[in-house]
């Protein structure tokens, strides 16, 4: 029982040390890769590799130039399989995030176009009704 408690205490102590680092790494990685995907308007493996390189370099910059290079390599090695896995999972789901974003944008455009067209039709009907009420455009004065 005491060994169990000691193991639990060390798990909590070291788990906390690593959990915030992993959470920060993942948050920065996802922010950079999503930003690149939105900026370039496409999702590619190079986005994930660049995000991994940036994040790895950022976490190892305190070790100098060697740490910066090593962190970049570690980030690239981590980013490529992670990005590939995410892209494969999206393909298996049937629709990638890019396709979903384009579909939603197209549906919104079509909805606004239909709304605009219906408002234009109402305006034309009101104009015809007003013209008929005044005796038409050929009314003599």
TrEMBL record:
Could you confirm whether the keyword Iron appears in this record?
no
User: Which organism was this protein described from?
Assistant: Struthio camelus australis
Cross-referenced PANTHER family: C3ORF1 PROTEIN-RELATED, COMPLEX I ASSEMBLY FACTOR TIMMDC1, MITOCHONDRIAL
Q: Give the family from UniProt.
A: Belongs to the Tim17/Tim22/Tim23 family.
Print the organism lineage. Eukaryota, Metazoa, Chordata, Craniata, Vertebrata
Protein name, as recorded: Complex I assembly factor TIMMDC1, mitochondrial
Subcellular location per UniProt equals: Membrane
* Assigned GO CC terms: membrane; mitochondrion
InterPro entries in the record: TIMMDC1 (IPR055299)
